[in-house]
Amino acid sequence: MKAPNNNWLQRWKDNNIGWHHTEFNQHLLNYWHALFLPQGSLVFAPLCGKSRDMAWLAEQGYRIRGIELSPLAVEAFFDEQNLQPEVEPIGDFQLWRSGPYEIYCGDIFDIAQLDNRDIAAVYDRASLIALNPEQRIRYARMLQRILPDRIKLLLITLEYPQNEMEGPPYSVSGDEVESLFDQRYSIQHLHSLNILRDTGRYRDRGVSQMQEHIYLLKQP
Asked: Which residues of the chain are in CATH 3.40.50.150 domains?
């Protein structure tokens, strides 16, 4: 199981990236403070795409480690930040690095090849919901295996009637979040928001209701 989504690379080639936000994610701005993370800490952004949220985190004084499958997305991120990254092979990855950013271009499930001991927090805005049910189990187990103790995760999910739309993004219920992560983390539900009225592309696909949920995960 090498790719989180079999058509992921093609969607970037076709610029079919409707999930990409040009503004900072409001939930990140509203709830990142709940992590109480010291400046200079390393934040892991899985399946980061070219998210501008990484730029916001860097502006707050954090170092960023992203992992992204598409080289087009990685190149676009550095172009949009007006940065000239150094690029070098690291295991099965291609590492793009400049300033506070290090983005590994490759498969998320190869992350165990890297030294992850310095990661202090995870910002998952679109990773869990990009994976099908089998991949979500593997992803959650992998994170809990490779991440250091006392780490904190800010997790954003979507919940909608899965039979009304074929993912990605997939619907992930609160019960599933519990089953995936509660063996290691305490799970705090921070906020939920009805987003369907502001998300016409999902209404057009036949979705009748959609909630966005924000969770804080940390070890007890």
From this structure: 39-125
For residue 20, give the nearest of 172, 126, 106 by alpha carbon: 126
Residue partners of 78: CB distance under 8 A and separation at least 6: 84, 85, 96, 98, 101, 103
Confirm if 139 and 127 have CB atoms less than 8 A apart: yes
Residue 45 burial (CB count, 10 A): 24
- The pTM for the full model equals 0.90
Is 84 exposed, middle or buried (CB count within 10 Å of its CB: 0-12, 13-18, 19+)? Answer: exposed
- CATH class entry, domain 39-125: alpha beta
List pLDDT tens digits, range 41-96.
999 999 999 999 999 999 999 999 999 999 999 999 999 999 999 999 999 999 99
Q: How confident is the model at residue 14 (pLDDT cuts 50, 70, 90)?
A: low
Q: Are strands 93-98 and 63-68 parallel, antiparallel or unpaired?
A: unpaired
Indicate the pLDDT class of residue 16, thresholds 50, 70 and 90.
low
Please give the Cα distance from 44 to 96 (Å, whole number): 15
Query: For residue 27, what are its two tokens?
Result: 């939930």
The tokens for 23 are 């503004």
pLDDT at 9: 52
